[in-house]
Amino acid sequence: MQTQKHEKYYKSSKNKKMILTAEKKIQLNALIDARKSLRVKGNHLKFMQHCWRKNKKLYPFIIGFHTKRICKRIDKAIDDYRNGESSYLLISVHHRSGKSDIVSRYLGPHFLGEFPNDEVMQVTYKAEFAASFSGYGREIMRSQIYQELYPNVKLSDDTKKKNEWLIADKTRINTGGKLYASGLHSGLTGNGFSLGILDDYCSGRAEAESLVQRNNAWDAFTNDFMTRIAPVGIVIILATQWHWDDINGRIQQAMKDDPNFPRFETMVFPARSRDYKGPGRYSGKYLFLERFSEKWYLTQYATLGKYGSQALLDCNPQLRTGGLLSLDGIILEDLKNFPDLFRLKFARIWDLAHTAKQRQKDDPDYTSGTLLAFEMRQNDPVLHLWIKHVIRFRHAATKRDTEIKRIAEIDGPFVKQAIEDSPDAKDAHDYIRNALPSISWNKINITGGDKTVRATPLESIFETPGHVHVAKENWYRDWLDEIIKFDGLGTSHDDQVDNLSAGYIFLITNTLRMSDKLRKSLAQRRKNIYNNA
User: Fold this and answer.
1) Which alpha helices (DSSP H) does 378-533 contain, by range?
2) pTM (predicted TM-score)
3) How confident is the model at residue 318 (pLDDT cuts 50, 70, 90)?
4) Among 12, 215, 343, 483, which one is least packed by beta carbons within 10 Å?
């Protein structure tokens, strides 16, 4: 009936050319479909809605504030890529928020539909999970709805593996495009990408708390993953940040340290709206109320506790320490900012792994040497501690002694070499003096007392902001990791902390207080000797 009215209208119209014939209706519908297709292709959010594979009644596609923001940023990255510009995105969002759907499941098929000649690399901490994401994306490409959207993009007949599939055109000729899925620690060499996705580089808290594991992940990221990128590409890291010093944290530090390091744009979506610092505003008190109730969020905070919530919900992991030495006082310094050796009294404090018990147990002690100085400043009741260099190693006696001699010679004559002589390192001074007689050794007598008591004078220094000056060198992460874990109970290595407490005894406790005038006079004398050397 409606069609008859329309036909009557057009017949009565002066413009009889507007009569919709069957052929024109087909053309009009095709035009409408084409316009819809263009909107879907150019909008990642619409692409996900259009190709959503889950049961829409049981698992509907729920859109939150973060979903819109992330998808919009991905759209810009794709446009920039089309125009020859690379993008680096670092995205943090709380768990169970659909982050893997946005990037790991749907972005690969979308990108290859737009750029069927290019390569996608999909990486996570475990190869099996990466293959699972890849398999999901492969099924999206096989779906009828995807093929209607990209009729010229097919899976190659050579595609046999879930973790590696090739792209072909409608004539079944391979285009050169492909998606490759891998674990972060294996299989990346020999492959490349225009779109690189790293979704969760760490399996959980236990792995994140290990400095060795964090170092391994960083090496794999910088040496294996980032070296695979094409001249123009997109890198997206979307991960739960379990630890402040993980890949996410190290990227932030690397951007500060090196102007040539890739400039990652950071997008952080914490659970609570009050913690969000980006553009726009949450619609409610929490990020994803479209899916989770306020009670769910409160339960999660209560279940995870403060430390876990800071990482998983607030997207802001904090330092977990042994509780004895605060990290508030620590600042990283460039070596150029350190005082000259003639202005402060520097000493290299050694803690020798000397006895057979220390060197032969399952987790042997380290021999460690710390180059440090304490500084008294006018009107400041708290000492400043300068830590210029730290070295530690596990060597047999001969190689160890050779290394100690090498370091002492590098330090030069203005640095006192001192070694503690304690119940834990009995006769260490007598041994090293005989083994390396060319060096003038100072003995630090430590008669007893536990390590907690010895570290007590350091507490106020570490608690006062800006009073522990640490050189920003490649050893500082190991050093900081020990400071964090130090509890005085011997549950972890404490040789570098022992260096600090022994250094305090040597330079402060055993040193006579002197007037500012005398101190300046001695400093000038050291400067004159240094300049004439």
Assistant:
1) 397-411, 428-435, 451-463, 476-485, 495-504, 516-532
2) 0.68
3) confident
4) 12
